[in-house]
Amino acid sequence: MAKLSAAERAALSDRSFAYVDSAGNRRLPIHDASHVRNALARFGQVPFDDEAAREKARLRLLQAAKKYRIVPIGFISSELEVAQRAVSPTAALPSGFVTLLMTDIEGSTDHVQRLGPRFGALIDDVWSVLRSIVSAANGFEVEARADEFFAAFEAPRSAVDAAVAMQYAFADRAFVDDSRVRVRVGIHSGYPTSTAANYVGIDVNATSRITALGHGGQIVVSVNTKDAVKSGGGAGVRFVALGAHRLRGFPEEVALYQVASKGLPSRFPPLRT
Questions:
Q1: What pLDDT sits at residue 1?
Q2: What CATH superfamily classification does 89-260 receive?
Q3: Are strands 98-105 and 140-145 parallel, antiparallel or unpaired?
Q4: N or C: where does the chain have the smaller number of CB atoms within 10 Å of the terminal CB?
């Protein structure tokens, strides 16, 4: 690593990395938690040769944040524009710090018993609504099976906005045989492990558990998601504290919140713990 005098260091611009190596390349160390936090805060000030180099650095930094169990809140705020780009149907699932959204239908067994073979048509219509909303919010469909739907978002706020849009859509729509559908929505932000076309790991399990705790018409999010949304300003979104709850299979309680929005129900029974 090149040694710089005080004068040389003072001459470095604000857009410089934290140090300059022996080849004259600007670099930012991410070998401990404090350096990772510094790198997250300064990432937006760094010029890159091209978008590929920027993406490579972004993923490396997110991997370091995962290693040190850092929720990159400020980084998310500065990187929201990345998630606003158009998403093609064949785009790869996002990696690094990802916000996961799951839904399931409340009382699906009752719908099956009442509709019989027409239940398949209801599910197709429900999935169509969900896919349209996820696509409009620049999200990625991960999986749809039985009465469940799974999507991923690079921007936590986009996931919350999509969840609110889902609840508005289901509140105003009747499906097969005038069926009214109420969906639970659970959202969690973390570092899921990617497979070829899906996610696995503890963050996926957390999202599933959070979804199962809610009620039809309700949106329940983890503290990770709430904090990440708030880091971007959180204008127009209100979170109602639901307390800390034990998720099945998790050693520690997780603070959960309900997303509140004008025109949606605000009162629900206690979470289904």
A1: 46
A2: Nucleotide cyclase, GGDEF domain (3.30.70.1230)
A3: unpaired
A4: N
